[in-house]
Amino acid sequence: MQQPFDLEIGPINYAIFPEGNDTYVVFKDGSEYAHIQKDTAEQWLKLDSVTDLPKFDFDEEINQIGKLITEYLENPPIDEDEEEEE
Fold this sequence. Notes:
By secondary structure, the chain is of the alpha+beta class. It contains 2 helices and 6 strands. It has one domain (5-79).
């Protein structure tokens, strides 16, 4: 399973916790903010906090977070510890 990682959009810090199946728990500035799921390459959905069903309302912030998650997964940062072992 993937390890949690951090992202930033402007001054806002997000902690991303992968849950599997393209689903993530997002913490915003230290508080649980949303559960999100990848729908398509360009569309991410916020999950209902009670039912865990996708909400199909457009949410620009959720899409921005999703795009950053995709970019992070495609180009993960190099871990300095791994670099030293090589």
